[in-house]
């Protein structure tokens, strides 16, 4: 039910958006949702926090742009090929990064972004360097609002594909193996889960989807700059969005992207170029990590359950109910009855049965 | 490349490596005591540089004197950070979550520096800023020498503290095996807090040294954290001598490569070394059991 309403809201957004700016903000939020969901293939299933997924976003974006500019491929063929290239690049990177756990993995992921930033800034003749790279628009004869609308649906389609794949993995044997890695990697390995290969596949899938989101962004936005594509901030936003929503839930990253993306757009609009959005993002990230590491979805469902019926820690259960629950076979002792009858058990009709009787009916 | 030029870059590399060594020692100290990758380390470095600059701007006194304030201040902040923030995290996910938490701290510092002092590039002008001395044909700027001296002195003090004091023994015991240290009566919580404080104090010293001859701006810390993290992985997470040695080697390497390749490409040596280390020896060149598990 909620799903249908959500889908209807997303699909009708271009028609109800009051002006092109709101629509373009909607596209930005949707692209954030794509990256956060893509990140969640690695972060959510295996628990490996990668702060460097912006690297794959940038590679996808630049791959698409360069394939169109230098090879002359049609836009969407270039997009798919760039996704395939990201996949190929990720395999060796993943093998190197996944040789270590935890802390070193994070360090490697950040380093990969920083190294690519250096390369793409330094190699100006190929990538355009800090001057930026202009990506030709795929639909040259479209007006701007129409262009936005088309890309809104394209991003929504990409997001849907990702969500479906995530859902499928979530219920597969592969997904269970990944979750075992998240909970206890050593035990998973001891139980025969091929942890390295599983992690590598998750990493590659995650990176490829991130690359595709980056390529789509390049086609839509049309202007790339290494500073913004290979930015650690972008990777950090992905983590923040996924964590905020809840990494163990299908729609967690989407929800987080909606909140963080809307907030970022608001801050950009209100405060412009000041550093306020950094401070706000920092405070939000700190608060999430300290107080809500499981995200909003578990927090809210927990809250609902707390105020819902039948879930308090002290349960009031009448003797009759207890009798019914136990199958009605053995009469239940009533503490009040024995205490009140000061030991004269033989006279009382409702006397508790002997310990011997209690074992009998089973 | 002529002999003089080679020698000059070698000397500059040693001077740079000294600063890297001090900062990497701090970074590896946090990891040792708490299993925390402190991304905010370089943000505190830049903050200390800004404080030194501001101190000089307001009073006109030599920025080195700001150390009297910043070192105790950063030590206290470090202890407070460990006590109030890091220990609140769940032990199971401590390593991953602490990365995010310290990342948030780094962003906060960057944002606040930009807010308070604006994003303009700053530089300290000192009477001896332009001076340099000749050393076997190599021209060495005095400020770089002062920075190196400061780093070397602090690193020496840190070494003495760790090797020859009761507190140092307790700290090293905590790094090696926390539970065992607790069993022999070390208050590991307190020791870990002080370890964190000392780590942050190295950032204060490094930042002041950096402010002498570098142009500073709020987002500069991203240029420092990458190399520093690469250094501690190459040296082996948790190993202070490993970090110092890797810092020296990579600092010299960067300085030598700057001549034929230019500054941007020379920086990639850190990442090349990082990936090579992971492929050949994932636990780092001096790391033991500890490094591979985290």
TrEMBL record, chain A:
Parts forming coiled coils: none
Subcellular location: Cell membrane
Keywords, ordered alphabetically: Cell membrane, Membrane, Transmembrane, Transmembrane helix
Keyword flag Transport: no
Transmembrane segments: 48-68, 74-98, 105-123, 150-169, 200-221, 227-244, 251-269, 275-297
Cleaved signal peptide residues: none
Membrane disposition: Multi-pass membrane protein
Region (Disordered) location: 323-362
Pfam families: BPD_transp_2
Keyword tRNA-binding: no
Descriptive protein name: Branched-chain amino acid ABC transporter permease
Automatic annotation (TrEMBL), chain B:
Pfam families tied to this protein: BPD_transp_2 (PF02653)
Annotated compartments: Cell membrane
The keyword rRNA-binding is assigned to this record: no
UniProt membrane topology term: Multi-pass membrane protein
Transmembrane segments: 6-29, 36-55, 67-86, 98-118, 138-162, 191-212, 224-252, 259-280
Keywords from the named record: Amino-acid transport, Cell membrane, Membrane, Transmembrane, Transmembrane helix, Transport
InterPro entries reported in the protein's UniProt record: ABC_transp_permease (IPR001851), BCAA_transport_permease (IPR052157)
Family under the similarity heading: Belongs to the binding-protein-dependent transport system permease family. LivHM subfamily.
Protein name: Branched-chain amino acid ABC transporter permease
Provenance organism: Isoptericola chiayiensis
């Amino acid at each position: 039910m909620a799903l249908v309403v959500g889908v209807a809201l997303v699909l009708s957004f271009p028609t109800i958006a009051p002006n092109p700016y709101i629509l373009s903000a909607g596209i930005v939020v949707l692209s954030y949702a794509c990256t956060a969901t893509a990140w969640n293939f690695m972060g959510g299933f295996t628990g490996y926090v990668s702060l460097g997924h912006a690297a794959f976003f940038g590679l996808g974006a630049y791959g698409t742009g360069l394939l169109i500019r230098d090879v002359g491929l049609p836009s969407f063929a270039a997009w798919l090929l760039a996704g395939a290239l990201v996949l190929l690049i990720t395999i060796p990177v993943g093998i190197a990064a996944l040789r270590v756990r935890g802390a070193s993995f994070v360090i490697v992921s950040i380093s990969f972004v920083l190294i690519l930033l250096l390369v793409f800034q330094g190699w100006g003749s190929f990538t355009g360097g800090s001057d930026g790279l202009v990506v030709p628009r795929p639909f040259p004869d479209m007006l701007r609002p129409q262009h936005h609308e088309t890309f809104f649906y394209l991003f929504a389609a990409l997001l849907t594909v990702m969500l479906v794949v995530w859902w499928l993995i979530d219920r597969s044997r592969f997904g269970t193996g990944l979750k075992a890695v998240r909970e206890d990697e050593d035990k998973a390995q001891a139980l025969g889960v091929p942890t390295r290969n599983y992690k590598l596949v998750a990493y590659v899938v995650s990176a490829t989807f991130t690359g595709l989101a980056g390529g789509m962004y390049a086609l839509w936005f049309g202007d790339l700059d290494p500073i913004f594509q290979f930015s650690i901030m972008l990777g950090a936003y992905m983590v923040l969005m996924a964590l905020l929503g809840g990494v163990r839930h299908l729609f967690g990253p989407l929800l987080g992207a909606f909140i963080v993306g809307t907030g970022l757009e608001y801050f950009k609009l209100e405060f412009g170029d000041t550093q306020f959005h950094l401070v706000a993002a920092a405070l939000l990230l700190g608060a999430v990590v300290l107080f809500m590491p499981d995200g909003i979805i578990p927090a809210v469902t927990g809250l609902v359950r707390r105020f819902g019926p039948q879930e308090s820690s002290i349960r009031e259960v009448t003797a009759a109910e207890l009798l019914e629950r136990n199958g009605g076979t053995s009469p239940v002792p009533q503490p009040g009855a024995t205490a009140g009858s000061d030991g004269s058990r033989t006279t009382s009709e409702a006397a508790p049965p002997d310990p011997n009787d209690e074992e009998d009916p089973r | 490349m002529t002999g003089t030029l080679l020698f000059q870059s070698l000397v500059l590399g040693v001077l740079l490596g000294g600063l890297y060594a001090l900062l990497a020692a701090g970074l590896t100290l946090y990891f040792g005591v708490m299993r925390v990758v402190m991304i905010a380390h370089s943000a505190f470095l830049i903050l200390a540089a800004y404080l030194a600059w501001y101190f000089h701007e307001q009073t006109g006194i030599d920025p080195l004197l700001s150390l009297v304030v910043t070192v105790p201040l950063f030590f206290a902040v470090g202890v407070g950070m460990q006590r109030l923030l890091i220990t609140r995290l769940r032990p199971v996910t401590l390593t991953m979550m602490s990365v995010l938490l310290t990342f948030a701290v780094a962003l906060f510092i960057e944002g606040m520096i930009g807010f308070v002092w604006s994003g303009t590039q700053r530089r300290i002008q000192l009477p001896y800023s332009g001076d340099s001395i000749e050393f076997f044909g190599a021209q060495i700027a005095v400020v770089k020498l002062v920075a190196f001296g400061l780093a070397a002195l602090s690193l020496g003090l840190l070494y003495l503290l760790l090797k020859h004091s009761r507190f140092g023994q307790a700290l090293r015991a905590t790094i090696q095996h926390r539970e065992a240290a607790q069993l022999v009566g070390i208050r590991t919580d307190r020791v870990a807090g002080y370890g964190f404080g000392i780590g942050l104090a190295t950032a204060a010293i490094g930042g002041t040294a950096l402010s002498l001859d570098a142009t500073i701006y709020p987002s500069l810390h991203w240029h420092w954290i990458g190399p520093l993290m690469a250094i501690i992985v190459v040296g082996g997470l948790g190993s202070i001598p490993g970090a110092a040695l890797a810092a020296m080697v990579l600092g010299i390497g960067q300085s030598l490569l700057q001549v034929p390749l230019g500054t941007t490409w020379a920086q990639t040596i850190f990442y090349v070394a990082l990936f090579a280390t992971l492929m050949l020896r994932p636990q780092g060149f001096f790391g033991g059991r500890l490094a591979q598990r985290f």
